[in-house]
Amino acid sequence: AQSVTQLGSHVSVSEGALVLLRCNYSSSVPPYLFWYVQYPNQGLQLLLKYTSAATLVKGINGFEAEFKKSETSFHLTKPSAHMSDAAEYFCAVSEHNFNKFYFGSGTKLNVKP
Amino acid sequence: DTGVSQNPRHKITKRGQNVTFRCDPISEHNRLYWYRQTLGQGPEFLTYFQNEAQLEKSRLLSDRFSAERPKGSFSTLEIQRTEQGDSAMYLCASSLGMGGTEAFFGQGTRLTVV
């Protein structure tokens, strides 16, 4: 079975500081990995995805994530936080048949001025 | 915009009533998923369709829940005899299936059972 663990339900950074949101996955087969962002009372928007190509994946809004098989991790980073980045972020994993996506419990990012 | 559309956006109902939600996926997507999200949690898988066939249902989907996707286009999710524990955001997503990877989500239907 697949599962996702997001360490830290709340992360607070200052505007301009590095953003690091952690995601570890459990999978019996090489997974596909995703990061989604959710604004209040909205659906989920895809930030980036890993599909077994390059291990460093660049996404929208300056975010990127690195797949590390040895650490079973897929942490999300952004060099410089903007106020508009304040939202909830979800890591997700899927098997190659995409029958379902397993989501972590989410990390709320707060950006302080 | 031809994204995933969900209606209604909000629904308040009394305990014991039946409710039905609709999802219109992206037109060329053959896979459609339903998820439930409660406060402070990530989305939990409920069920998915490949065209009109419902291929998998979660154990979360009790007998009071039923989903359909007639003709492989839009989908409905019905909850019968609603309970307060059914209060949640119900999210619909669609994907190309094996021809694609990520799921595209709608804005969700927030259900409040009073």
Characterise this structure.
Helix content of chain A is 0%, strand content 52%. With 113 residues, chain A is mainly beta. The mean pLDDT of chain A is 92. Chain A has no helices and twelve strands. Chain B is mainly beta and 114 residues long. Chain B contains no helices and eleven strands. In chain B, a hairpin with a 6-residue loop joins strand 7 and strand 8 (75-79). Chain B is globular. Classes of the chains: A mainly beta (113), B mainly beta (114). Chains A and B meet through strand 5, strand 6, strand 10 and strand 11 of A and strand 4, strand 5, strand 9 and strand 10 of B.
Sheet with most strands of chain A: 6 strands, mixed
Secondary structure: helix percent of chain A: under 10%
Which value, in Å, is the CA radius of gyration of chain A?
13 Å
How far apart lie the N and C ends of chain B?
34 Å
The Rg value of chain B, from CA coordinates, equals 13 Å
The number of helical segments of chain A is: 0
Which segments of chain A are poorly predicted (pLDDT under 50) over 5 or more consecutive residues? none
Would you list the SSEs of chain A in sequence order as H and E?
EEEEEEEEEEEE
Number of helices of chain B: 0
Largest sheet of chain B: 7 strands, mixed
